[in-house]
Predict the 3D structure of the following.
Amino acid sequence: MKIGNVVIDKNAPVFIIAELSANHNGSLEVALETVRAAKRAGADCIKLQTYTADTITLDCDADDFVIKGTIWDGRKLHDLYKEAYTPWEWHKTIYEEAAKEGLICFSSPFDKTAVDFLEELNSPAYKIASFEITDIPLIEYVALKGKPIIISTGIAELEDIELAVQTCRRAGNNDIALLKCTSSYPAPIEEANMVMVKDLAEKFQVISGLSDHTMGATVPIVATAFGAKIIEKHFILDRSIGGPDASFSMNEEEFTAMVKSVREAEKAIGIIDYKLTEKQAKGKDFSRSLYIAEDIKKGDVFTEKNVRSVRPGFGLHPKYLKNILGKKSNCDLKLGERLSFNVIEELNEKN
């Protein structure tokens, strides 16, 4: 998968997305400063959401359209999205600011008109939000654009994921990434289930990653260890500015620390390699080896008393101890001398 000039594959660094969502709090200047802050924090990408209240829901007072069981309890869907949306007329300016900062910028469309609008901006990729994974007509429409498509799985059962992936592939689009997501705000860490990151990649033969709503950096670090190649986290200048998503968004300091931890985790994972580095090899100086433990005269028999396996590691390997015990010395030896084959009478004669 390649988004803009960034390659995302199993050998690449984790692609870290700062999700702007509603964290502009109605101000374009806040949105632009958030882009700049995301760059300072180490993000690779800033992501938007492209919808209006009328493209995502209905302006309806019926009970079905009143939110229950979340941090937005009691609010009408239309009212929430009217507050949270990013004005479409801001998008071009935000995209340009991201490019100026060296960040990739793309968005989550929530209907076909949003896709058409984002195509006009030459958006380099598309994100399907968790709640849209069952919107197969939307996924097909996006997939047909032939650009990388990242799908969050927050509300999905296996059959939902299978259908979404099949839809992309039937449209001729194999540039797919699946993000493990827990659609709670904030999400309990015990529901993160990061082992799914590896399973998604293996089961569907795609890039996998994490769209995270937990508090803190623990889950992104664990996701990295399980092979996540994309990590998305809500990002805000300062939670005190408020807004619908403020409570579960990371500020610049927290996001910076998360990026640092993820990069350190990547280094710690490393590669499968049984060869020692130069520094590791130097550590063998402190390993065990066979040394003369008390003075020995020529002809004396080697015993467990006068030959011992001790630190440092410059003498014979301890694996030879059983072969040496009972043999005789062919010269005088002093305590602290390294044991070697050429001082052992019988072994020396055979050689």
